[in-house]
């Protein structure tokens, strides 16, 4: 099994101030941290600066695989599109200032015009690349249309852009119903980052939301199959713990960060022999995007 690089998505320890999150991630043993633009804005609003934030990141030795998230980029032409792209530009400027490699583009909600989405994603990529940041396409298991790897890949490939990437997430594979087998269709270079988490047996998949995610290995997703597929395509980069649990937010953030890294390593640092052959789970025909 290849050696992945571990990242902490900052929402996992949400209540802590962003500067504290950076320190905690480094001390816990992570190599990277994903930051949310909302917390960057909060830091700037409390008299902090992007220069200070970048210094804290550099001093910690952490990388920023991505910032979260870009939205409003897939509106039809008109005022809504201009406003959305203006906000994306502002966030991409922040991403560049903190040294982010990617910035995650949230999928359009509702019914999606894939031709328009592909065109808009290509435009967003061009904008990001002009600043040194690559927007990465995300899928969400509870979205009406873009709820699987295949859907995200359809937008990326439709853009015709060689720099397009997607964000993987086993919870969204489970929630959307398509499973993780489409990892085998990907090239490692098409993956910006893998968010990492697990899902409980209850409530049913179709009723689960972000708050239901659990620590890796504490749920029913076959995460070993997920990481085995990543290994088979040669992916050896960011595995990033992303949880939205209020009970974890009430705990000591240092303990949560340390526990999360232990849980990820317990899943990911395994031998090939006998691991990951059962499939991520049985996809639900009712939920499947295809």
Walk me through this protein's architecture.
- With 290 residues, the protein is of the alpha/beta class.
- It has a single domain, classed as Divalent-metal-dependent TIM barrel enzymes (TIM Barrel, Alpha-Beta Barrel), CATH 3.20.20.150.
- It has ten helices and eight strands.
- Helix 4 links the parallel strand 3 and strand 4.
- It is globular, with a radius of gyration of 18 Å.
CATH superfamily: Divalent-metal-dependent TIM barrel enzymes
Domain unit count:
1
Q: In CATH terms, what is the fold-level topology?
A: TIM Barrel
What proportion of the residues is helical, as a percent range?
A: 25-40%
**CATH C-level:** Alpha Beta
Q: Can you summarize the main beta sheet?
A: 8 strands, parallel, barrel
How are the secondary structure elements laid out?
Elements: E1 5-9, H1 18-28, E2 32-36, H2 37-45, H3 50-60, E3 66-70, H4 79-97, E4 102-105, H5 114-129, E5 134-138, H6 149-159, E6 166-168, H7 170-176, E7 191-196, H8 223-232, E8 238-241, H9 246-249, H10 253-268
Parallel strand pairs: 1-2, 1-8, 2-3, 3-4, 4-5, 5-6, 6-7, 7-8
Features:
10 helices, disordered C terminus, TIM Barrel
Summed up:
By secondary structure, the chain is α/β, with parallel strands linked by helices. The protein is 39% helix and 13% strand. The longest helix is centred in the N-terminal third of the chain and has 19 residues, at 79-97.
């Amino acid at each position: 099994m290849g050696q992945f690089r571990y990242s902490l998505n900052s929402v996992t320890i949400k209540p802590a101030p962003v500067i504290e999150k950076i320190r905690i991630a480094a001390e816990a043993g992570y190599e990277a941290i994903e930051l949310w633009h909302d917390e960057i804005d909060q830091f700037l609003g409390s008299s902090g600066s992007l220069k200070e934030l970048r210094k804290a990141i550099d001093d910690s030795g952490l990388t920023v695989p991505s910032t979260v998230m870009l939205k409003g980029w897939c509106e039809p032409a008109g005022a809504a599109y201009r406003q959305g792209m203006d906000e994306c530009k502002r966030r991409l400027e922040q991403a560049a200032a903190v040294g982010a490699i990617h910035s995650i583009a949230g999928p359009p909600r509702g019914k999606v015009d894939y031709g328009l989405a592909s065109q808009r994603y290509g435009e967003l990529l061009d904008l990001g690349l002009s600043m040194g940041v690559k927007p990465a396409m995300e899928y969400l298991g509870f979205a009406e249309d873009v709820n699987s790897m295949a859907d995200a890949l359809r937008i990326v490939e439709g853009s015709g852009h060689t720099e397009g990437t997607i964000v993987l997430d086993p919870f969204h594979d489970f929630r959307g119903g398509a499973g993780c087998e489409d990892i085998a269709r990907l090239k490692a270079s098409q993956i910006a980052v893998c968010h990492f988490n697990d899902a409980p047996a209850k409530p049913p998949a179709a009723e689960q939301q972000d708050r239901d995610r659990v620590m890796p290995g504490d749920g029913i997703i076959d995460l070993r199959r997920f990481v085995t597929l990543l290994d088979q395509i040669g992916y050896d980069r960011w595995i990033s713990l992303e949880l939205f649990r209020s009970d974890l937010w009430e705990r000591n953030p240092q303990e949560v960060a340390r526990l999360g890294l232990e849980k990820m390593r317990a899943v990911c640092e395994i031998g090939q022999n006998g691991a990951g052959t059962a499939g991520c789970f049985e996809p639900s025909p009712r939920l499947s995007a295809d």
